Amino acid sequence: MTDLSHIRLTGRPLIISDVDDVILEFIEPYQRFLNARGLKFLPRSFRLTGNVVRVEDETPVSEDVVQKSLHDFFDEQHAWQTPFEHVMTALPALAEEADVVFLTAMPPKFTDKRRLLLDELGLHFPMVAVETAKGPIASMIRDRHTAPVVFVDDMAHNLASVAEHLPDCLLLSLAPPSAVHAMAPKPPQSARIVRDWADAAPIIRTHFGSRIGA
Ligand SMILES: [Mg+2]
User: Fold this and answer.
1) Which of 2, 100, 161, 170 has the CB geometry, 3.0–4.6 Å to 135, for a possible disulfide?
2) How many angstroms is it from 213 CA to the middle of ligand 1?
3) In a 3-state reduction of DSSP, which class is residue 3?
4) Which domains does the chain have, with CATH numbers?
């Protein structure tokens, strides 16, 4: 059972945000991390296994090696991951009028490493790491609060999962302009596609404003 006891909502509007490739750069530093290990990612399709190959002969590595590279990357994330442009200005400003919770798809054992990195950046918002569907967790995070809620993620399946469990949630599809994201499944129709947090912020404020007092 995912522990949500550290999350204290104030009843203000709520922003639930993914972390990788939404708050922190992921695909770009992960590719640099692979290169440092004699591997590279060939964005031939929307999957890692089969597309992570050895630099010298481009032979794909096994799923186990891919999984280990991901776990090692999360273990060393402090050395590789940096915030997305506009996050450090847009998010603290939004947090003046909203609660923020990070909902990250990452093995929970790396929670402390990610917490440290986010804290160093001044992003002290509570964080939950899950490997299960995000919709049920987002619903539990919101609990009985009725204030407007927004969910931001770069992955279609996460947006769809939250749409199912929080039907009144504003869904924002925010992803870096990477080759791999270009091949990703398209977000659900109900999601608005935004370029970055500077683009997202006024849309979030409008959603909050239009629902306050409703
Ligand atoms: Mg992500």
Assistant:
1) 161
2) 32
3) coil
4) 14-25+82-211 (3.40.50.1000), 27-79 (no CATH)
